[in-house]
Amino acid sequence: MHLEYIYNYDIRSSYLYAPSPIKFLSSFTMANQEKNLLTKVKNSDKTAFQQLFSDFHDTLFRFVAYRVQDSDLAEDITQETFLRVWKNRKSLIPEKSFFSLIARISTNLCYDHFRHIEVRNRHEDQIPQFGKSHFDDPEAVNQAEMLQEEIHRVVNENLPDKCRAIFILSRIENRSNPEIAEILDLSTRTVENQIYRALKILKKHLKNYL
Q1: Can you tell me whether residue 139 is helix, strand or coil?
Q2: What CATH number does residue 112 fall under?
Q3: What pLDDT shows up at residue 54?
Q4: Does 137 fall in a domain?
Q5: Helix H segments across 69-97?
Q6: CA-based diameter of the chain, in Å?
Q7: Using an 8 Å Cβ cutoff, are 100 and 113 in contact?
Q8: How far is CA 30 from the centre of its chain?
Q9: Which residues contact 118 (CB under 8 A, 6 or more apart)?
């Protein structure tokens, strides 16, 4: 497996990828539109909240779906994220990136889910397994599928939160670096550095596949 596979790896899947509704206008215009919407939401404007939901739902859904690998669960977490935004709307800071906020909330919800799964699996491990066939042997899995699973694991377990968010936006959403910088209210150089960091971590953990 060549290193280029990691650098050019497209981790989108059919149910994750679709054109995003977010329209990238000029940096100044987009920032001001988002700020105005957040200000209105903070003042309990439901129409403004519906607009934010419409603008960011699909992007957040795919961000979460890559983490949990389950479309139904991803939709539940996405809905819960927006619900928490509305419940805590008075604490919104309109000057700060909205996607950074919902990415953080959804990430915490994902962590809650993973902790629940870990506890459940601990109990299930104590129950004898019957009827397991040889088709369940991980060695029978295609190497490409194994690599995809390992990339998914490394992204979820080894990348820091900011680095993970940028990497997923880049690879799932196919966003350019300037677009990611705009979404997360970061400099383009920071985005570039974080993508480089993500690839370096992936290379380290996937050395057995290279």
Answers
A1: helix
A2: 1.20.140.160
A3: 94
A4: no
A5: 71-87
A6: 61
A7: no
A8: 22
A9: none
Residue 205 lies in a domain: yes
- pLDDT on residue 174: 85
**Torsion over CA of 62, 64, 66 and 67, rounded to 10 degrees?**
170
DSSP 3-state assignment of 95? Answer: coil
Q: What is the DSSP string of 44-76?
A: T-HHHHHHHHHHHHHHHHHHHHHHH--HHHHHH
In the prediction, which pLDDT does 135 show? 46
Sign of CA dihedral 107, 112, 113, 115: positive
Nearest in space to 13 (alpha carbons), one of 95, 51, 68, 79? 68
CB atoms within 10 A of CB 192: 14
Q: How far apart are CA 65 and CA 69, in angstroms?
A: 5
| pLDDT attached to residue 6 | 45
**Which residue range is the domain that position 157 belongs to?**
3-7+25-125+143-209
- Low pLDDT (below 70) residues in the chain: 1-30, 117-144, 209-210
Contact 102, 82 (CB under 8 A): yes
